[in-house]
Design brief:
Structural class: alpha/beta
Shape: globular
CATH architecture of the largest domain: Up-down Bundle
Largest sheet: 4 strands, mixed
Order of helices and strands: EEEEEEHEEHHHHHHHEEHEEH
CATH topology of the largest domain: Four Helix Bundle (Hemerythrin (Met), subunit A)
CATH superfamily of the largest domain: CRISPR-associated endonuclease Cas1, C-terminal domain
Number of domains: 2
Distance between the termini: 20 Å
Oligomer: single chain
Strand content: 15-25%
Length: 342
Amino acid sequence: MKQLLNTLYLMTPNMYVHIDHETLKVEKERQLQLQMPLHHLGGIVCFGNIMLSSRLIHKCAEDGRAIVFLDHTGHFKARIEGPKSGNILLRIAQHETHCDAKKCLTLARNIVAGKLQNARGVLMRGARETKNSDDEARLREAGGRLARVIKRLPDCIELDSIRGAEGEAGRSYFSVFDTMVSADRNIFALNGRNRRPPRDPMNAMLSFSYALLLSDCISAAEGVSLDPQLGFLHAVRPGRPSLALDLMEELRSILCDRLALTMINRKQITQKHFEKRTGGAVSLTEKGRKEMVVAYQKRKQDEIFHRFLDRKMPLGLVPHIQARLFARVIRGDMAEYLAFRS
């Protein structure tokens, strides 16, 4: 269970990827850039214009290895995977749970509680680390607002009220987010969360890292035979991986948000890693995307303590563990879903 299969991220335009026997090879202009045993890979993520051989696609489908296509900004475009298998009875139970208003409400409440507890932890950590008394006061005040929202969650008896509480807490969280930036704060100022497209460097970083996390959460859901399209907190819409979005809520702040702050404060990411596009959109450059992907993969290797399992594990395994806990609740093996808390 401690093995964490690697995800290969391909970002340089016009790369050609193919297999030679059981070895994956990456070429650019007929020059070999990388080769590695295919069995070491858990998935492949392609950014922009990447060419894959049909033999590689077929082999990945046979092995159950997903191939994800994103545009150059990290926005999801497509996913290739083999035939569905696994436990059809679990998927039936998932649909029945989704139709049970009481169970759906409990799952959604616990997801939001976990998300807000972890987000508050990020704010409190920022308050402890800052050397500016005004910033500390703002962070602690926002942390207090999140704590009050968490206390109100048990009284929310409708899904819309839970979503409303989540939205209220999110606005408080992002209203003070850039007070945790200690380097180039004027460049990485955050005037609220915006996306599709992101309109400032900080939102560009967050959106990009969220896209990476979403891909991991889709794989986690599929890995335990759950339907990633059928969630409990997020509304079901065609083409929307609602369950994967549910899974990633607990990890946004501790994995993606902290990663963005760390990279900015260490000046691993600076103004030169962004470019403005038509219509006011801001996106990471190719070099900026590479920096983030490398840091994201390293962050997933960090050891964390999982309270429910009472042991340490790589952070990258948490989506898979939480997907298994979802499955246990859906099967009726657990009374309530226990969100991950850092």
